Amino acid sequence: MSPRLRRLLFLACCALVLPAVLHVAAHMPRFGDHSMPYGDLINAVALAERHTTNMVSAINFDYRGFDTLGEEMMLLCAVGGATVLLRGSRGETESEPQRVPGRPIIARADSTVLASRLFGAVVILFGLYVVLHAMTTPGGGFQGGAIIASGLLCVFLGEGYPGWRRVAPSELFDALEGGGAALYALCGFASLVMGLPFLQNMLPFGQKGDLFSGGLMQFENAGVGAAVTGGFVILLIEFLEETREPVPDGDEEGDDP
Amino acid sequence: MSAVLHAPPVTLLPWLVAAWLFGIGLYGIVTSRHYVHLIGCLGVVQASTYVLLLAVGYRWNATAPIFYSHPPGRAVDPVVQALVLTDIVIGVTVTALLLALVLQLHKRKGTLDPERVRPMQP
Amino acid sequence: MTLQQMAVLPVAIPLLSAALILATAPILPRRMPDVLAILIALCCAGLCGFLADRSAAGPIVTWFGGWTPRGGQPIGIAFVVTPAGGWIAAFIAALFAATLVFSWGFFEKTSAHFHLLMLLFMAGQIGFCLTHDLFNLFVWFELMSVAAFALTGYALRSSALSGALNFTVVNTIGAYLILAGIGLAYSRTGALDFAGIARGVSASPGDPVVVASFCLLSTGLLIKGAQVPFQFWLPDAHSVAHSPVSVIFSGAMVAIALFGIAELYWAVFASAPVVHALMHGLLLGMGTASAALGGVMALLQRHVKRLLAFSTISHAGIMLIGFALLDRQGVSGALVYLVGHGLVKGSLFMGAGILLARLGGADEIGLRGAGRQIWPAGVAIGAGGLLLAGLPLGVMDAGLERIWDAARLAGCWPAEIAICAGLVCTGAAVLRVTGRVFAGLGPVPGEEERSPTEDEREDADRPLWLMLLPVAALLVLAVPLRHDADRIGWLAAQALMAPQTNAILGMGRLHAIVPPPWRVAPHSVLPWIATAAAILVAALQLFWHRLPCPLAHGFDRFAAPALRGLSALQSGRVADYVAWLTAGLALFGVAASFG
Q1: Rounded to whole angstroms, how far apart are CA atoms C206 and C501?
Q2: Across the interface, which of C146, C236, C582 has its CB nearest the CB of B93?
Q3: H or E stretch covering C567
Q4: CA distance B16 to chain C (A)
Q5: Is position A44 within any domain?
Q6: Is B2 a member of any domain?
Q7: Domain count of chain A?
Q8: Is B6 part of any domain?
Q9: Across the interface, do A25 and B15 touch by the CB < 8 Å criterion?
Q10: A221: which of A56, A134, A185, C269 fits an S-S bond (Cβ 3.0–4.6 Å)?
Q11: Dihedral in degrees, nearest 10, Cα atoms C86, C88, C94, C98
Q12: Please, where are the H alpha helices in C359-394?
């Protein structure tokens, strides 16, 4: 199909769908003013039942905790897939793909190095704070894990590639990622061993609004935090490998850890 | 169609925005000449699902579903917010995979024009 | 351990072991992931089979975290094992076990990652079959999609990469359509559990939002199920992935997406009249078109895996016809056909894998007569071809007879013709390959007929018997279990079509699944005719050059341009595929307005 014909087909189809879309939009529940039985029920009972003040975390880790387990595994899957795709070709000889023309790693200004060191530490601390406060205020393992990983990226900005590879050995972060996801799954098996339904929260719930409230949810949250940190760092490692300057033949493996 | 005309405009706006984002994202994919641009358009399509889900859970004059400093009361729907969180993770994972694929393809073909990187074409 | 607790294990065990394999990959012995993955797949198959067997006495309902519904309002996620979902999950796990045996030692270098992806792929599919929650269904759907995207690109050749890109883009749009459908269903009913939504749907069955939700959900699933006009991604992806991966794609992934539509229809939307009309009209039409188109396209291919990929579209179309007839006979037939087709198609893709490993290619013309020294593979592929053509033997035929019977009773003659065309063309295509590659039939290829594809040899360092073992196991399973499969299919159709909505919500007792009295699947003359026609068509194609001149000339003059046009639609451009996807959405929009 020529681009012109394709665009025409697409626009014609959109025109055909449009009346149906408007019709449905007109019959949607009134925006901001309709019943929400599921959400209201959880808003009403979760604080009393689980002692967590963050309803979104209560849903993510308890009421619908099984979704989060699946989502964790999706992350594992995507990171594993991206690793294979990126790493596979670097060791591949079959069709010998060339490395992307490398971006020269420019020497950094002292101010960049200083700023990266300062910000890196602050960002990582902030990430830990967000992970820890999942049960009380907005935050949790996902958001915090992503923040920690970006804090580690400051190492690359400040110290350059060799420094980055020193702080980020991929085996460690593979283990962190797999271990975090396994911890989440093991929480479910712990409930099974105690004769309860999978993922049933059987630990003491703690004080309402306390950092350590929520019982089993804390372990699940920690698992998510570890898995997301590990997964994102692995992604960063693999993508940053691609930006390396091509090394002359002969000492290809010279600076690999 | 008459119902469209009589409803107050603001109640329709979120649904129409969601539909618009979906459509314009698809348009971007259909006309894209570069795979990285195409992946961006896929992100626009995904954004429409954020808008839809969050609009479904919105409520006028209500607080966030975080009862740390005030007692449980009239709050927006926390369920859709949890769903959107999952949605975001899905978006991130798929984007990472797509970018890895695109990077590899670029190494082999030297181009990322969807017209020129087609599977099984002689 | 109670049955309720056990119902979680077929998903939880592969998830946990995948995470552990990743965490401990550097210290695991070399063959350990292989052995572990095969054992886990077998264990899941056994568990699912056991649970499915027990669920005949009443669906096994388990609420995660112990969150049972409150006053009819579900607040957690449930797994519900019925004979339908349970047996399909068991079949999937068994297919995975056979595939993992087939791929023993296939992926030396990045072995642990391959098994990680395969285990998560399996867990996603089993979770998809067992879950009773719309968003949870989406999570498993997306888990299996992400695993599938990664596994497609795994081959790392440029055609594999661009095939994986087309696959990922089109299917990800499908995932967002599903998510939008979930949003609409939730906005109207305030629930995510199937039973909870079903209650809301039956309270307002004519609501356009409900209909739109069904349209979006089924579009997303039809994309995964590769039905016209959403099918274009499938040949690109299935033919470039490694053959063990293609086995799962064609044998299980496509088919369970269609099962998902059937499950959603009866568990959630059955009380909406417009949805009923869409299912019996538009989806039936799509199935019909896919059955015919897939068959014709399969005949035109010379790359064996691409040929098999098109035949999957055709047979998935036949399955969709079975579901969309909305008749007990058709549904039980489609469920049985799903399993039978999975077994046969799985063994055929393994056969193609043997060609790639032993003969270094899958181009039919280039391999003419090259298969003589691996004749046992030829026997297997030929047998698979006959079964695809409808040879009245085994599980696939039991399903086919019921779908055929249902279509005949419904007076739906286009579907009958499409089923015939699909069977004859796909069977003929595979038989033609067998004849050419293993018996050296057909004309000697000239220099200009060289294969246009790149080198795609797969790892040959495996004994032939190891690769033939799972092929034989699948074919052997596909034949003698006819009666058992048919009886289970009959029970499963009852479980699928009469969900115990109120009892699952805690209002009322779960009761045993009692189908109407079972009769042996009918025997018609169709399969014999289809098989004979397939052999005839294969022979015609092989000996085309010896035909009297006017006949061949007439064909070239009139039919060939149309066929070239059809092939040109499969352009490999993802933008074209998305434009066709929009056309499919428009079809839904128009049909829903007039339905």
Answers
A1: 20
A2: C146
A3: helix C549-569
A4: 13
A5: no
A6: no
A7: 1
A8: no
A9: yes
A10: A134
A11: -170
A12: 375-388
Is residue A72 domain-resident?
yes
Distances (CA, A) of C201 to B112, C197, C218: 46, 6, 16
From chain A, the residues in CB contact with B64 under 8 A are 138
ipTM of the modeled complex: 0.93
The Cα–Cα gap between C124 and A90 comes to: 30
The rounded distance, in Å, linking the Cα atoms of C492 and C165 is 36
> Quick check: C553 pLDDT over 80?
no
Distance CA(C441)–CA(C369), nearest Å, equals 7
Q: What pLDDT score was predicted for residue C452?
A: 54
For residue A182, tell me if it sits in a domain.
Answer: yes
Residue type for position A50: R
Are residues C180 and B120, on separate chains, in Cβ contact within 8 Å?
no
Using an 8 Å Cβ cutoff, are A77 and C120 in contact? yes
Tokens matching residue C449? 């007929």
Partners of C147 on chain B (C-beta within 8 Å) are none
Is B121 domain-assigned? no
Residue C545: which residues within 8 A CB-CB, separation 6 or more?
Answer: C443, C552
DSSP labels for B46-80? HHHHHHHHHHHT--TT-B-SB-SSS-S-SB--HHH
Helix C413-439 with C304-324: angle, nearest 10 deg: 160
Residue B90 belongs to some domain of the structure:
yes
CB C342 within 8 A of CB C95: yes
3-state secondary structure C80-126: EECHHHHHHHHHHHHHHHHHHHHCCCCCCCCHHHHHHHHHHHHHHHH
Reading the block at residue C110, the tokens are: 């990045």
Please give the single-letter amino acid code of residue C57. Answer: A
Local mean pLDDT, 10-residue blocks, chain A (257 residues): 92 95 93 91 92 93 95 94 81 43 67 92 95 89 94 88 82 92 96 94 88 90 96 91 58 39
Q: How many CA atoms lie within 13 A of C376 on its CB side?
A: 13
Range of the structural domain that residue B29 is part of: 12-61+75-109
Parallel, antiparallel, or unpaired: how do β-strands C78-81 and C60-63 relate? antiparallel
CB C416 within 8 A of CB C504: no
Q: What's the whole-number average pLDDT of chain C?
A: 91
State both tokens at A93. Answer: 């000889």
Q: Which domain holds residue A152?
A: 49-77+109-243
Within-domain flag for A177 = yes
- The pLDDT of residue A68 is 95
Q: For the segment C410-454, what is each residue's pLDDT rounded down to a tens digit?
A: 999 999 999 999 999 999 999 999 999 999 888 887 765 655 555
Are A51 and A201 in contact, with CB atoms under 8 Å apart?
A: no
CATH number at residue B53: 1.10.287.3510
Of C66, C74, C75, the CB nearest to A197: C66
Contacting residues of C for B79, CB less than 8 Å apart: 186, 192
The CA distance from B69 to A37, in Å, is: 24
Looking at the structure of chain B, the number of domains it has is 1
